[in-house]
Amino acid sequence: MIQNDDFWDKIAKNVSVYHHHVHHLRERCVVLENGLEVPADVLLCGTGWDPQYPFLSKDQTVELGLPHASEDDPPDVARKWASLLQAADDEVIARFPQLADPPAFYKRRQNFTATRLYNCIAPLSDDSILFLGDIYLSNAFRTAEAQAIWATAYFDGNVALPARERAE
Fold first, then answer.
1. Angle 38-42-46 (CA atoms, 0-180°, nearest 5)?
2. In this structure, is the dihedral angle defined by the CA atoms of residues 6, 9, 14 and 15, taken in order, positive or negative?
3. Which stretches of 3-155 are DSSP H helices?
4. What is the mean pLDDT of the chain?
5. How far apart are CA 81 and CA 167, in angstroms?
6. Where are the alpha helices (DSSP H) in 36-133?
7. Structure confidence by residue, pLDDT tens digits, 44-66
8. What distance in Å separates the CA atoms of residue 32 and residue 47, rounded to the nearest whole number?
9. Cα(133)–Cα(46) distance, rounded to whole angstroms?
10. Residue 40: which residues within 8 A CB-CB, separation 6 or more?
11. Which secondary structure element, helix H or strand E, spans residue 98, and what is its range?
C-alpha cells in the first residue's frame, strides 16, 4: 500500500469515525440512529460481508444499481438487463466453453439482480456516491488501493464514466 510518513497524522487530525448505525441520508448530511446529524462530503460504509444498505430505500437501491429483488424492476428494465446479461454470458462462454456446464452444486441466485455499477463501483445514475469493496479477490489490499485511487480520480473529475449505453 502507498503510505507517506505523515499518513497517520493526517488521518488522526482530519477524520472522524462514528460507530452508530445510519438512520437516513440527506443532501450532504448523514443522520445517525442516535439523532446526531453529521455534515459529510463523503460516506464510507464498512458493511462487512452483508452487501445490504438498510439506510437506502428500495427505490434508491434500484436506482443506484445495487442488487435488489428482481420483481422490483419495471418489465422493460428487467428485459433490457436480461438481454445484457445473456449477451455477457454468451461472450464469456464463447471464450471459455468449459464454463457452460457448472458443477451440479452451483446454484445461481435468481431472485436478486446482479450489481449494475460501472467497474463494480459507480452507479450509472448518480455521480455523488461510489460503492467500494464489493468485489471478492484474493489480493484485497491491492484491490482496495486501486479502487481508492480510482474513486479519488473520479470525484476529482479526472475520470469520467462512458456514455450510459456503453457503460451498461
1. 90
2. positive
3. 7-14, 58-64, 75-95, 140-155
4. 84
5. 12
6. 58-64, 75-95
7. 766 555 667 788 889 999 999 99
8. 15
9. 9
10. 28, 29, 30
11. none
